[in-house]
């Protein structure tokens, strides 16, 4: 709880600073500050909602079904692309898969992909281009998001690849919401019986979730 509170304190403090600065800025700067306020508040609200969902995972509200992975990823990028542009970054989407449907819960999968993308937006350098890739590995659909942020600590990397984080974790090199977002993604993946993991690079990290492929027809595009 202390880690979660600390992680959520950062965006609230930033919102306060931006709100105070608006009164002393010119119109162009004001517009940028307003966009940043919306961006930060949306991310904070989503994380609070996701924490509420974790507490209700066992209540039967989040059943799995055939879900269009491409549809989920495109919806996330549609929501976040304007904020990537505000931050001077961008993200590309690539498809290397034949199967289109995975066994998942649409809302939980959306949150996992959203948190991966927020990491890419928050921790990559200005002007960088992150990548989201949908591929197939060992009869599973993999959604992977590559960022160019600070190094992922060995302890966190090992925990992610051993089943995910079982509690919110502070990541010294990635302050803000990275540890909380990865905890949320871990809990949602475990509920869907999906596998979460990370790959460390010399200039960043790739976070991924592997989902069982579904052969059924999905109406949730």
What distinguishing features does this structure have?
alpha+beta, two-stranded antiparallel sheet, five-stranded mixed sheet, 221 residues
Report what the structure shows.
The chain is α+β, with helices and mostly antiparallel strands and 221 residues long. Helix content is 49%, strand content 22%. The protein contains six helices and seven strands. It has helices at 2-22, 27-55, 69-86, 106-123, 154-161, 178-191, and strands at residues 65-68, 90-96, 101-104, 129-137, 140-147, 195-201, 204-212. The strands form two sheets. The protein has a five-stranded mixed sheet. The longest helix is centred in the N-terminal third of the chain and has 29 residues, at 27-55. The model has no long low-confidence stretch (mean pLDDT 84).
